Structures are given as C-alpha cells and as structure tokens.
Here is the input.
Amino acid sequence: MSTPTLRTEETEARYQKLKEDGILEQSCALCRVEPKHLFTYWKIIPNEFPYDKIAKVHDMAVTLRHTAELNEEERAEFEVIKSSYINDNYRYLLEATTRTKSIPAHFHIHMIEIK
Ligand SMILES: [Zn+2]
Here is the structure.
C-alpha cells in the first residue's frame, strides 16, 4: 500500500522521482529556493511539490539559517509573521511530523490556501 499523501498523483510521482534520484540529499532544496517574501530571520518560498489535492497556494516559511532548531529570535519573529503576513495570506499552517518530514535538517512550516 502506498503512503497517504496530500499531493495529486502527478505531483507525488514527480516528488518520488526526485527523492529516488537522491537530489534531496545532495543540497538543501529549502536553502536553494528564491524567496517570494523576505523577513529578518525567515523567508517565504513556494513549495515545488505542493499538496495540490487540497492547496490552491502552497508556500513555506523557512528559516534563513539552515537549521532544524529555532533560536529565540527566530521563534519571536515567527509569532509576528504568523499573526500578520501568514494570517493575511493563508488559511492553514501545517507542520509535518518527523515521520513525514522529507527535509528534517531545515525547519519549515507549510502554509496553505485551500481550493
Ligand atoms: Zn537548508
């Protein structure tokens, strides 16, 4: 049985292909992607493999530092971003659990505007 996913079949296949090719291990995809919005400690980036079964827009809030653990400044700014930018632009915040995270080395939160 396949793993449940919020991606459509097509997007999931594209994502699995990338994983099998080992691209995710070679360099950090989250560090690589250009921001659509920049804060002091965070950037907002589009998800290249959106949860497109449910998402019309699927972006991610990512720390500028390549880190799995947030420091105090990052935590504080996230609360500000959450109650302003994120609240204004998305309907849901989603954090994958460790079982589901494909890039556990770089902290990220999914933000979704549903279809
Ligand atoms: Zn990174």
